[in-house]
Amino acid sequence: MSKPPSRTCTRDFPGTVEAASDAENWVAGQASALGLGQEAEFAINLCLEELFLNAVQHGHANRTSISVCAEADGVTVEFADDGEPFDPTLAPAKRINGPTDDFDIGGYGTGLMQKFSRSMSYRRFEGMNRLVLEF
Amino acid sequence: MRMDMKVIPADDEITHVVLDGRFDIQGAQEVDSRFDELAKSSKALVVDLAKVSFLASLGIRTLMLSAKTLIRRGGEMAVCGADENVEKVLRTTGFNEVAGIYPDYESAARTLRERLAAFSGKKP
């Protein structure tokens, strides 16, 4: 019996916060075409929002590219941006530990991406950050 | 509109906020300023997430900022009704360490009333 073909969708987005919102809408729109389940769609969008905001707000990226590949045994997403070099696999996962009124209101993205993806791998190639996430 | 937000003043202590939609970048931007006003004026806030299908970075920031503002004013915050994925996001960040997570509005409101009464020395 032959393996079902993989399905891939790729799209470029400008490096703006508005485009991050467009990217989320795009992934949501591709979900049924790619056969993504609700849980996978949630996890992918969660990671993409974090990556997009990091690339735009901290990395000052001008352009980004998202590729989603759905296969029988899972989904692979590559997020590429031309921002400053940043390897999220090396960033510590932050969490509020214990009751306090002195906590950060942001910076939890790395921990969330680790929790919601099966694996993350990073490389810097041809001036682009390239992060591959498996779900 | 990405996110619908209804504010129900349940009584003089608890403000019940019902969200309906996606708490993504656009959704968070739509409700941010109203959350900020409520956090600065309410005694206790129960945020009902039963109809929230997605929560990510900026939505968490909105909830975290409200919780921080309320706690520093001596107030309380809780969320209720979150589905499995939304609750997983909240627990992964440790949000549950600063605001309670409850299955429904009634249990959240009851606990917050008891806590407010304990702080003020009154019977709930």
Shape of chain B: globular
CATH architecture identity of chain A:
2-Layer Sandwich
Average pLDDT of chain B works out at 94
Helix content of chain A: 25-40%
Biggest sheet architecture of chain A = 5 strands, antiparallel
Oligomer: heterodimer
Spatial shape of chain A: globular
The chain-level mean pLDDT of chain A equals 91
Number of distinct beta strands of chain B: 5
Structural class of chain B: alpha/beta
Helix content of chain B: 40-55%
Give a brief outline of the structure.
The complex is a heterodimer of chains A (135) and B (124). Chain A has 3 helices and 5 strands.
Write the layout of secondary structure elements.
The complex is a heterodimer of chains A (135) and B (124).
Chain A: E1 7-14, H1 17-34, H2 38-58, E2 63-71, E3 74-81, H3 109-116, E4 119-125, E5 128-134
Chain B: E1 3-9, E2 14-23, H1 25-41, E3 44-55, H2 57-72, E4 76-80, H3 84-93, E5 100-102, H4 105-120
Parallel strand pairs in B: 2-3, 3-4, 4-5
Antiparallel strand pairs in B: 1-2
Provide a descriptive summary of the structure in words:
The complex is a heterodimer of chains A (135) and B (124). Chain A is of the alpha+beta class. Chain A has a single domain, classed as Histidine kinase-like ATPase, C-terminal domain (Heat Shock Protein 90, 2-Layer Sandwich), CATH 3.30.565.10. Chain A is 35% helix and 29% strand. Chain A contains three helices and five strands; from the N terminus they run βααββαββ. In chain A, strands 1-2-3-5-4 form a five-stranded antiparallel sheet, with helices on one face. In chain A, strand 4 and strand 5 form a beta hairpin. The relative contact order of chain A is 0.19. Chain B is of the alpha/beta class and 124 residues long. Chain B has four helices and five strands; from the N terminus they run ββαβαβαβα. In chain B, strands 1-2-3-4-5 form a five-stranded mixed sheet. In chain B, strand 3, helix 2 and strand 4 form a beta-alpha-beta unit. The longest helix of chain B has 17 residues. The mean pLDDT of chain B is 94. The chains are: A alpha+beta (135), B alpha/beta (124).
